[in-house]
User: Fold this.
Amino acid sequence: MNFLSLFLLGLIMSRSTEVTTQTSTELLPAVSKYLTARAAEFENIPAERKVMLQELADHVKACSDADKTAHLVFICTHNSRRSHLAQIWALAAAEFYGIPKVETWSGGTEATAFNPRAVAAIQRAGLQVSAADEKAANPHYKVSFRQDQRSFTCFSKVFSESPNPSKDFCAVMTCTQADEACPLVSGCSERIAIPYEDPKKSDGSLLESATYDERSQQICREMMYVMWRASQS
Assistant:
């Protein structure tokens, strides 16, 4: 670990006892409860991952301080699991901590579909999810975590496709394979690698639901940590 990483880690650890909860009354009660539980787990995040997460927090805070919108595009290979979970939980975490100018997107190096196992995991976490045609090859899901039922749409796409931004965005690589396959992400102003283990390994097993819930909780916990850090003055 280099000097800068050690310095950042020292700053992070020195503030580990600060209050980490702040909730929006606009959130669905079940989602608010889920996010509050993840915020109580920051000590479970390894120190070396906190250094990676701090890079993203610094980007969001820099945008906020400049009164600019932070456009975050989460990228994995198939845009089917981890990138969707990160997109959803990062936006919910920004709402939880009252950071208004955050927009999140997701994409892959190829398009497949938002995996129904990952969809089921966010439903178990309390989010409202619906699809016009779940039998379509690539369903478009409306996802909401707010009491006013305001929703956004999730579907699989290549990261450079509409409606994703084409410039001035932060590319967050959520899997090692996508990071290695994309030596250049055209249009991004910053690129950060925060890889997650693919829950696909459990597909069809007795551990399937538990594995997806575990990965959803991890991604949510870490996106909550990012937005908490970004909300600090």
About this structure: The chain is about 40% helix and 15% strand. The radius of gyration is 17 Å.
